[in-house]
Amino acid sequence: xxxxxxxxxxxxxxxxxxxxxxxxxxxxxxxxxxxxxxxxxxxxxxxxxxxxxxxxxxxxxxxxxxxxxxxxxxxxxxxxxxxxxxxxxxxxxxxxxxxxxxxxxxxxxxxxxxxxxxxxxxxxxxxxxxxxxxxxxxxxxxxxxxxxxxxxxxxxxxxxxxxxxxxxxxxxxxxxxxxxxxxxxxxxxxxxxxxxxxxxxxxxxxxxxxxxxxxxxxxxxxxxxxxxxxxxxxxxxxxxxxxxxxx
Amino acid sequence: xxxxxxxxxxxxxxxxxxxxxxxxxxxxxxxxxxxxxxxxxxxxxxxxxxxxxxxxxxxxxxxxxxxxxxxxxxxxxxxxxxxxxxxxxxxxxxxxxxxxxxxxxxxxxxxxxxxxxxxxxxxxxxxxxxxxxxxxxxxxxxxxxxxxxxxxxxxxxxxxxxxxxxxxxxxxxxxxxxxxxxxxxxxxxxxxxxxxxxxxxxxxxxxxxxxxxxxxxxxxxxxxxxxxxxxxxxxxxxxxxxxxxxxxxxxxxxxxxxxxxxxxxxxxxxxxxxxxxxxxxxxxxxxxxxxxxxxxxxxxxxxxxxxxxxxxxxxxxxxxxxxxxxxxxxxxxxxxxxxxxxxxxxxxxxxxxx
Lengths: 247, 354
Prior knowledge:
The complex is a heterodimer.
Chain A: H1 24-38, E1 44-48, E2 63-66, H2 72-82, E3 87-93, H3 94-100, H4 102-110, E4 116-121, H5 151-154, H6 160-165, E5 170-177, H7 181-199, E6 204-210, H8 214-217, H9 221-235, E7 239-243
Parallel strand pairs in A: 1-2, 1-3, 3-4, 4-6, 5-6
Antiparallel strand pairs in A: 5-7
Chain B: E1 4-8, H1 9-19, E2 24-27, H2 34-46, E3 50-53, H3 57-69, E4 74-78, H4 80-95, E5 100-106, H5 122-127, E6 137-139, H6 144-161, E7 164-170, H7 171-175, E8 177-181, E9 208-209, H8 216-236, E10 240-243, E11 250-253, H9 256-271, E12 276-281, E13 283-285, H10 289-295, E14 301-306, H11 312-320, E15 325-330, H12 339-353
Parallel strand pairs in B: 2-3, 2-4, 4-5, 5-7, 6-7, 11-12, 11-14, 14-15
Antiparallel strand pairs in B: 1-8, 6-13, 10-12
Helix pairs in contact in B: 1-2, 1-6, 3-4, 9-12, 10-11
């Protein structure tokens, strides 16, 4: 019988701790499939964030670092400078990358570090149970914006890909979602492009993934993918913001 | 190699690091240690290494984390306010048991303070600084030559114990120009195999550099293991200089710049017939408690002289268990005590105890 679906070799045989309907599991699988297809498992290094994906190394069969909150790009920089032949990626949430670690992310991008960032934007702090994130939408209720985020109190959500795409060091910046089979296929394509960008040594690459968080959004998984399409993607448009083909 | 080069302490430290095999240097500029980064920016490309000017001290210490985890000899340097910013990363480095060398050329604090020499980061350096149970090894040079020698030693100690090691100096040590001889590093840990490091292609025995242990039983084991390691450090790595203490009635306790000035004071006091010596801790962690206890068997009084409000003073008191009089003299804010002040203080102590 022909095998039509199996676990990517880069994923361990492990059940994740992620909530039902969460987007992290899908993105993990896509990264693993891409690493398998590119044949780079033995030279790929993951840098885990602080946030829901802190135990990432329990799921990926890869050499890994566990970073302090927000510092993954600096650690990835240190590793990549010592071993330029390795493929180094950071996996970071919106609090990790766009709040506490903004400086590290922006400067790794500005230096054109040849690393890849997979940026999970689910518009809230998932692991600490749903506080406001830098990407929380205006009007969105969280545990620290009980009346909905108000710009006059909490400022405006940050469009990370658009911001980073302005930097010369960035070779690839793309925003995708995992809200439908079609979007998942596109997300995988972008993740592959990002890793290929690093392999070719073109510069910094980032894929922002709009990801559903049913638990903290207080929605069913079905409602949450609809919210990604209708609300999140309205403020954070999907697409490629930068895609260099040569350095 | 016996050729001597005339250079500033900061540059001596940088060249010593290169000699010890350091090829990855990450730092953010801050006075009074900018010569280290400037030297490295010229020197690293010559030896095939990496100099990277980080966006902050926070980023610099995590670049060190990444490079150390990748198996490299790596270093950062800064001064007091910048070292404060690194404390989070130092805690993570100690927790992940990564070897690295840090240089703190202390300046006056607290806050932005000043840029003149100080010794007011003793507590931060020797007692923790960052959160959690850990210690750095802390080495305090009192000359440019010693700064170079201790920097080379620091890389070996860091590799041996898989622990951060700090060179604790001040603006005086860093800026003063002296003839420096670069000895070849001893054969030793420079080529130590780091089986735990991330180097790629480790299928079957995955490498993981981490510090999160959610299960308290597992974390307790980790804490105890680090404790066992640090007991070895305490047993093996105490370093100090005992100068004219054999017959001394009064012993000065001082380190770094102040110890050097104290020697001048001792020369004058000895010429005047007073029996005065110096006990100079070279390793501030581990602290030479036993050396103080031994000297106390015959010394009648101790004078701690520091450029702080009394930080090493606490360790000297601890060493002597309140059995000897411990006097204290300090200048702070970036003022370096001169030998005449120390002479006068020793005379006061001597009058009380002899």
